[in-house]
C-alpha cells in the first residue's frame, strides 16, 4: 500500500468521498420528506450521487496506484462498475426511505456495502496489467466487515439524528466505510507479473480515466448544489409556512379574543357616517353577527334617552379637540327591549389637511356585571344586612333631605321610632337564631304597612324607624302606629315554638316638633320612652311636657349622685315575723331618699334611674355594707335581708364582694339573706346558677322576691336552691276582695310546702289578711300591719323583746305578738 500508492491519493479521495456522502444524505432527506414522483426523482438523485461518489473515490485512488507493471483500464468494466455502484446505492436508499427500524438499517447497510464491494471488484476486474492480481482472502473479509459496520453506523446516526450535526457525522462514518473497504481490499491485492500477458491497446488510458473522474466529480458537485438549494428552499418554505401558520394563529386568536372578550370594536367613517361593527358589538346586545346596521344613526337610535345628551356632548368635546379621548358609560337598547350598560371608548385616528376629523375607532365594553356589582355594593352600604331595610346611614340621609324640603317648600313629615318589647327575653331564651328570624319577620310586617313613598329602617338591635311623607297627619300616624302594634303583636312561630312580643312607638312631627334632624330624633325617642313607661305595646306623640320630664329626670339624676356622695341616703327596715308565734325573725333593709326640696322620693322612681345611669352598683354595695354593719350591733342575732337588683347580680365579682363585706363587718353568713328577682336570673341563667350556688356554699340564705310576677317561676324553683319564696304584695293585698288572688296565694303556699321552701307573704296590712295566711300555714309575714319601714332605732324595743306594733298586740289570740327574748 505505501510503496505502490502516491501520497496525494488518500486526502483527495477522502475529500471527494465525504462531499459525495454528505450530498447523498441531503438528497436522501429530501426523498424521505417527499411523496409521489418527487420522491422517486430524489431517490434517483440520491443513488446517482452515492454511486458516483463511491466510484470516484475508487478510481481517484486507482490513479495514484503505481504497481511495478504497466497498467490500463477496460472501458466496459469501468463503466459497469459505475452502474453497479449507482444501482446498489439506489436500492439501499429505497429501503431506508420506507422505514427507519433496526432491520431496515441493517438491510440497507448490507445492500450498500455489497454495492461498494461489487463496484470495487468490478473496477479491479477492469484493470489491465501484464499479469494477474492475487487476493488475500482474510483482508478481503476484513474489508467487507469493516465496511458493513461503518455503513450501518452511518445510517443509524442519520436516521435517528444523533448529535448536533447528524448529516456530517453520518457522512464521515460512510466515508470511513468506503475508504476502509477500498484500501483494505487494495492491501489484499498483489500484482503477479506475467510476461506472456500484454496490456491491450484499446484500453482506457489514465488521462481518459482522469477526465471521466473529473466529469463524475462535477456531477457530484451539481448534486451538492442541488442539495444546498433544496435545503434552502425547504427552510424558506418551512419559515414561510411557520410564519403563515403563526399569522393564521394570531388572526384566529384575535378573532377568538374579540368574540370571547367583552370588547366590541367599531370603526366610524365620520365623512360618510358608516360604522364598521365587530360581531361582538352586535352579540353583546342580543343581535346576530351583521344584523345591526353599520351607521352612526344606529348608535343614536339605540342609546338610552337619559344618556343621549351627555354622550353626544362628550363625543363633540373629543371631535372638537377639547378632550384627548372619548370615554363614556351609557346604556344601549338590546334586541329584547332591555338595556345593557357599555363603556364606550374611542379616538380620532385620521384628520384631513384642515384638521377636521375623518375617522374614529374605538371599543364598546360590556360593563353590565360591574354595574350590578356596584349596585349591590351601594345597596349593602345603605341597607341592613339582616332585614334588607334601609340602615341608619341611609335613613338619616333621607330624613335630612325630607326636613330640608319641609323647610324650603313647606309641607310636613313625621318620624316614628319603634322599639320591640320583650325582645331580649326571646334572645336569651330561644337563642340568637330565633332573634334574627324574629327581626326579619318584624321588618317584613312593618314594611307591609307603610305607603310606598314612606321609608322604614332598622337602626340597630331591635330598634326601627319610619319616615312618613305620604300622610303625616295625627290621625293617619295614630292609625299607622296601631297597625304596627297589631302586626307585630301577632304570634311568631320558630322551630315549633310560639313567640309573642310587643311594640312601643314614639312619634315626632315636622315642622311643629322641629326641623333639625337630631332634635326630631331626640323628641321621637322621648315619646317612645313615655310609651314604654306607660305600659309598653303603646304609642305616644311627643309633647312639650316630655321635655320638662327629661329636664326633671336629669336634675333628679344629678341630685341622686349628690345624695349618694353627701350622705343623703339612709336605710329603713321592715320587720319579718313568724306567722304562728309572732316571733320577730329579721328585717328587710330598704333604701330611702329624703330630698331636700321634693321630700321623700319613692324607690320606684329613683331605683330605675340608678339602674339606667349605672349608679346602682355603688348604691347596692353601700346598702349591703351598711345593713351588715348595723346588724352586727343588734341585741339579738336576727336575719337581715338585702335586695339585689338585676344589674348588681350581673357583676363578675359579686360572690367575692359579698363575702368580703361579711368578713369586713363581722356578720356571720347565716344571718344574711339575699333577695333576687327572676329578671336578674334570666339575664344569664348559667352564670346566675353558679353565683347562687357559690353564695349557698358560703352559708348565705337566698330568697326569690316578687314570686308570681315572672315568666318561668316553676322552672326557676326547680333549678335554683332557694330558701324562701316571697309572695308579691299585689296578690296578698287582693285576697280579701279577689277570689283568684286567694287561689294563687293558696297555690303558692302549697307549692312551697311540696318543695320544702319557706314562704313569706309581703304587704300584709289587715287582720283578715293575716288570719287567711295563718290558716293557710304561711310561715312568715311582712307588711305595714307589723310595722312600716323605719330607721332601725325605731325598732330597738322590738329587737330587745317588746311588742312590734299596737295593731298586732290587739289581735284576739290569733297569734302571740310578744317576741321571745
Give an overview of the whole structure.
The protein has 821 residues and is an alpha/beta fold. The chain folds into four domains: 9-229, no CATH class; 261-373, 2-Layer Sandwich (Beta-Lactamase); 383-542, Reverse transcriptase/Diguanylate cyclase domain (Alpha-Beta Plaits, 2-Layer Sandwich); 555-809, Alpha-Beta Barrel (TIM Barrel). Helix content is 55%, strand content 18%. It has 29 helices and 25 strands. Strands 17-18-20-21-22-23-24-25 form an eight-stranded mixed barrel, surrounded by four helices. Strands 6-5-9-8-7 form a five-stranded antiparallel β-sheet, sandwiched between helices. Strand 18 and strand 19 (599-601) form a beta hairpin. The chain is elongated and about 180 Å long. The N and C termini lie far apart (156 Å). Residues 803-821 have low confidence and may be disordered.
Topology:
Layout: H1 9-32, H2 36-63, E1 72-73, H3 75-98, H4 102-125, E2 127-128, E3 131-135, H5 137-160, H6 166-187, E4 189-193, H7 206-260, E5 263-269, E6 275-277, H8 279-283, H9 296-302, H10 305-319, E7 326-333, E8 339-351, E9 357-366, H11 368-382, H12 392-409, E10 413-421, H13 423-430, H14 432-449, E11 455-460, E12 463-468, H15 474-489, E13 492-494, E14 497-499, E15 502-510, H16 517-533, E16 539-541, H17 544-566, E17 569-578, E18 584-595, E19 599-601, H18 603-613, H19 616-631, E20 639-643, H20 646-649, H21 654-665, E21 672-676, H22 678-682, H23 685-697, E22 701-707, H24 713-719, E23 724-727, H25 729-732, H26 739-755, E24 758-761, H27 767-775, E25 780-781, H28 796-800, H29 806-809
Parallel strand pairs: 15-16, 18-20, 20-21, 21-22, 22-23, 23-24, 24-25
Antiparallel strand pairs: 1-2, 3-4, 5-6, 5-9, 7-8, 8-9, 10-12, 10-15, 11-12, 13-14, 17-18, 17-25, 18-19
Helix pairs in contact: 1-2, 1-3, 1-6, 1-7, 2-3, 2-4, 2-7, 3-4, 4-5, 4-6, 5-6, 13-14, 14-15, 17-18, 19-21
Amino acid at each position: 500500500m505505501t510503496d505502490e500508492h502516491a501520497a496525494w491519493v488518500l486526502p483527495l479521495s477522502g475529500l471527494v468521498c465525504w462531499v459525495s456522502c454528505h450530498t447523498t444524505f441531503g438528497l436522501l432527506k429530501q426523498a424521505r420528506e417527499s411523496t409521489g414522483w418527487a420522491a422517486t426523482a430524489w431517490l434517483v438523485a440520491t443513488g446517482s450521487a452515492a454511486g458516483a461518489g463511491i466510484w470516484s473515490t475508487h478510481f481517484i485512488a486507482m490513479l495514484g496506484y503505481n504497481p511495478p507493471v504497466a497498467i490500463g483500464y477496460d472501458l466496459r468494466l469501468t463503466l459497469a462498475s459505475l452502474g453497479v455502484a449507482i444501482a446498489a446505492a439506489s436500492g439501499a436508499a429505497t429501503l431506508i426511505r420506507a422505514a427507519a427500524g433496526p432491520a431496515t438499517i441493517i438491510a440497507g447497510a448490507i445492500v450498500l456495502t455489497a454495492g461498494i464491494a461489487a463496484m470495487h471488484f468490478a473496477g479491479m476486474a477492469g484493470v489491465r496489467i501484464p499479469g494477474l492480481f492475487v487476493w488475500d482472502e482474510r483482508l478481503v473479509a476484513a474489508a467487507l466487515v469493516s465496511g458493513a459496520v461503518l455503513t450501518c453506523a452511518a445510517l443509524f446516526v442519520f436516521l435517528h439524528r444523533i448529535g448536533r450535526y447528524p448529516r456530517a457525522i453520518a457522512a464521515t462514518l460512510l466515508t470511513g466505510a468506503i475508504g476502509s473497504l477500498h484500501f483494505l481490499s487494495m492491501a489484499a491485492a498483489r500484482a503477479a507479473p506475467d510476461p506472456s500477458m500484454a496490456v491491450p491497446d484499446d484500453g482506457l488510458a489514465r488521462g481518459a480515466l482522469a477526465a471521466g473522474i473529473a466529469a463524475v466529480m462535477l456531477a457530484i458537485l451539481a448534486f451538492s448544489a442541488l442539495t444546498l438549494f433544496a435545503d434552502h428552499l425547504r427552510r424558506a418554505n418551512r419559515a414561510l409556512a411557520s410564519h403563515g401558520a403563526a399569522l393564521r394563529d394570531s388572526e384566529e386568536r384575535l378573532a377568538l379574543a374579540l368574540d370571547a372578550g367583552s370588547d366590541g370594536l367599531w370603526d366610524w367613517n365620520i365623512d360618510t357616517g358608516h360604522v364598521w361593527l365587530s360581531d361582538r358589538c352586535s352579540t353583546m346586545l342580543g343581535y346576530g353577527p351583521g344584523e345591526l346596521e353599520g351607521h352612526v344613526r344606529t348608535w343614536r337610535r339605540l342609546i338610552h334617552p337619559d344618556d343621549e345628551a351627555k354622550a353626544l356632548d362628550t363625543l363633540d368635546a373629543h371631535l372638537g379637540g377639547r378632550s384627548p379621548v372619548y370615554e363614556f358609560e351609557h346604556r344601549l337598547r338590546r334586541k329584547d327591549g332591555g338595556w345593557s350598560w357599555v363603556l364606550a371608548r374611542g379616538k380620532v385616528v385620521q384628520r384631513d389637511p384642515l384638521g377636521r376629523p375623518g375617522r374614529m375607532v374605538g371599543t364598546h365594553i360590556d360593563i353590565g356585571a360591574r354595574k350590578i356589582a356596584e349596585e349591590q355594593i351601594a345597596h349593602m352600604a345603605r341597607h341592613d344586612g339582616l332585614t334588607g331595610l334601609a340602615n341608619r346611614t341611609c335613613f338619616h340621609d333621607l330624613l335630612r333631605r325630607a326636613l330640608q324640603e319641609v323647610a324650603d317648600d313647606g309641607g310636613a313629615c313625621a318620624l316614628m321610632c319603634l322599639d320591640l318589647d320583650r325582645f331580649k327575653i326571646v334572645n336569651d331564651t330561644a337563642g340568637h337564631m330565633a332573634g334574627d328570624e324574629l327581626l326579619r319577620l318584624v321588618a317584613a310586617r312593618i314594611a307591609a304597612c307603610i305607603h310606598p313613598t314612606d321609608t322604614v329602617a332598622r337602626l340597630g338591635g331591635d330598634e326601627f324607624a319610619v319616615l312618613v311623607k305620604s300622610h303625616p297627619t295625627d290621625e293617619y300616624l295614630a292609625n299607622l302606629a296601631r297597625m304596627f302594634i297589631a302586626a307585630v303583636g301577632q304570634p311568631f312561630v320558630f322551630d315549633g315554638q310560639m313567640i309573642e312580643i310587643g311594640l312601643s312607638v314614639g312619634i315626632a312631627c315636622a315642622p311643629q316638633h322641629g326641623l333639625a334632624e337630631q332634635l326630631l330624633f331626640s323628641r321621637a325617642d322621648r315619646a317612645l320612652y313615655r310609651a314604654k313607661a306607660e305600659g309598653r305595646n303603646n304609642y305616644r306623640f311627643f309633647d312639650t311636657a316630655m321635655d320638662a320630664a327629661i329636664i326633671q329626670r336629669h336634675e333628679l339624676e344629678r341630685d341622686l349622685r349628690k345624695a349618694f356622695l353627701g350622705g343623703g341616703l339612709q336605710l329603713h327596715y321592715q320587720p319579718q315575723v313568724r306567722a304562728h308565734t309572732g316571733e320577730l325573725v329579721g328585717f328587710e333593709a330598704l333604701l330611702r331618699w329624703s330630698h331636700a326640696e321634693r321630700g321623700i322620693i319613692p324607690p320606684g322612681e329613683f331605683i330605675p334611674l340608678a339602674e339606667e345611669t349605672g349608679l346602682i352598683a355603688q348604691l347596692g354595695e353601700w346598702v349591703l355594707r351598711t345593713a351588715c354593719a348595723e346588724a352586727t350591733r343588734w341585741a339579738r342575732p336576727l336575719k337581715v335581708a338585702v335586695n339585689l337588683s338585676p344589674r348588681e347580680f350581673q357583676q363578675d365579682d359579686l360572690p367575692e364582694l359579698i363575702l368580703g363585706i361579711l368578713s369586713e363587718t363581722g356578720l356571720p353568713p347565716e344571718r344574711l339573706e339575699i333577695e333576687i328577682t327572676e329578671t336578674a336570673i334570666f339575664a344569664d341563667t348559667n352564670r346566675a346558677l353558679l353565683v347562687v350556688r357559690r353564695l349557698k356554699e358560703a352559708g348565705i340564705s337566698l330568697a326569690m322576691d316578687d314570686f308570681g310576677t315572672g315568666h318561668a317561676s316553676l322552672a326557676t324553683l326547680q333549678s335554683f336552691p332557694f330558701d324562701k319564696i316571697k309572695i308579691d304584695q299585689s296578690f296578698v293585698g287582693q285576697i280579701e276582695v279577689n277570689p283568684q288572688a286567694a287561689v294563687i296565694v293558696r297555690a303558692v303556699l302549697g307549692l312551697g310546702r311540696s318543695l320544702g321552701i319557706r314562704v313569706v307573704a309581703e304587704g300584709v296590712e289587715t287582720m283578715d289578711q293575716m288570719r287567711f295566711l295563718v290558716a293557710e300555714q304561711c310561715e312568715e309575714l311582712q307588711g305595714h300591719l307589723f310595722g312600716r319601714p323605719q330607721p332601725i332605732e325605731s325598732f330597738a324595743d322590738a329587737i330587745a323583746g317588746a311588742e312590734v306594733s299596737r295593731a298586732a298586740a290587739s289581735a284576739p289570740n290569733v297569734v302571740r305578738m310578744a317576741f321571745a327574748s
